[in-house]
């Protein structure tokens, strides 16, 4: 069976920032990044890096842990940053309007396991984890079009 994952080491926070900036260059309406991993593994740092790369380095990017979703206006399409940690059922995702955003906005979704059957087929999964003193992110599927655009 072919391995459908690819990974990259992130030795420090700057590497995570650079990865977010690289993704910002290839994202557009309908792009969905699903960010998984334990608390402190770099999901929110990555999402902030993407958003600041798109909107400017001084952009305030609060964690959506309590608001569940933060939205940002962008000329290239709205940006949705969601943290689904506190949700208990996929029905709550529908109430947030996130399902419609998957087709129209750039979506960065933390704790995507809460989506259940609402997980969009076209999403790119990023699994953040610890790797010694640094982090590692694993992408699936490895042949996702966004990853292809990142490669020179």
From TrEMBL:
User: One Pfam annotation, family name?
Assistant: TsaE
Provide the GO biological process annotations.
tRNA threonylcarbamoyladenosine modification
Q: Where in the cell is it found?
A: Cytoplasm
Q: Which InterPro entries match?
A: P-loop_NTPase (IPR027417), T6A_TsaE (IPR003442)
Q: Which domain of life is it from?
A: Bacteria
Cellular component, GO, one term: cytoplasm
Chief location bin: cytoplasm
Q: Which UniProt keywords apply?
A: ATP-binding, Cytoplasm, Magnesium, Metal-binding, Nucleotide-binding, tRNA processing
A GO molecular function annotation here is: metal ion binding
Q: Does the keyword Nucleotide-binding apply?
A: yes
Family label: Belongs to the TsaE family.
Entries under NCBIfam families matching the protein: T6A_YjeE
Please report the name of this protein according to its UniProt entry: tRNA threonylcarbamoyladenosine biosynthesis protein TsaE
